[in-house]
Amino acid sequence: MSKRDSILKSAETLIRNEGSQQLTLDRVAEKAKVSKGGLLYHFPSKEELVAGLVARTIEYFDRDVDAAKATLPEGPGRNTQAFLLASLEGRWAADAGLSPDRLDIFASALAAASTDMKLMEPMRQAYARWQAVLDNDGLDPITATIVRLAVDGLWYTELFRLDDNVCTGERREQIMERLKRMCVPEDSTPAAKRGKQARKKR
Hints:
Blueprint: H1 3-18, H2 25-32, H3 36-42, H4 46-70, H5 78-88, H6 93-96, H7 100-115, H8 121-135, H9 141-159, H10 164-167, H11 169-182, H12 190-201
Helix pairs in contact: 1-2, 1-4, 1-7, 2-3, 4-5, 4-7, 5-9
């Protein structure tokens, strides 16, 4: 991990564990085990540190989306399912039971909102971009949006441990399977295809 990434990761950990009010350059330098001058070399101000958090979050989540998409077949709903998998089964999911990338989004958004709401603008643009992809994924746009909102809801429920019965075990698997099925257009499901074939034979 580069020194820059180490500093950002330390900032994220500090926010999650102690709150955004503790986000100061001195505390981050302490957590990252670098000198104040070393931190300032990469991030000359707190605003630039927060901007770095937001940019890194978006970059890493995009990577997870691309990695998930590469495992899925071409066709309608592919992008929506990739968003689902990146959000809830990202490559760091085994560390905490949910995707640390999404934890990074939480930390970055909290830091940006508490520092200067203008720093949230890249995050807003990223969400608008992700939503535009879902709107043009070959699914009903409302269905794709419902999947995205359900993903966000499950993630927040997991993050704040609001309901462990939903977030673990068989119930979570069932929710994931239902959301994955929603990412497939109805007329391309095996049952729908069998129904079409039966109607053709009549």
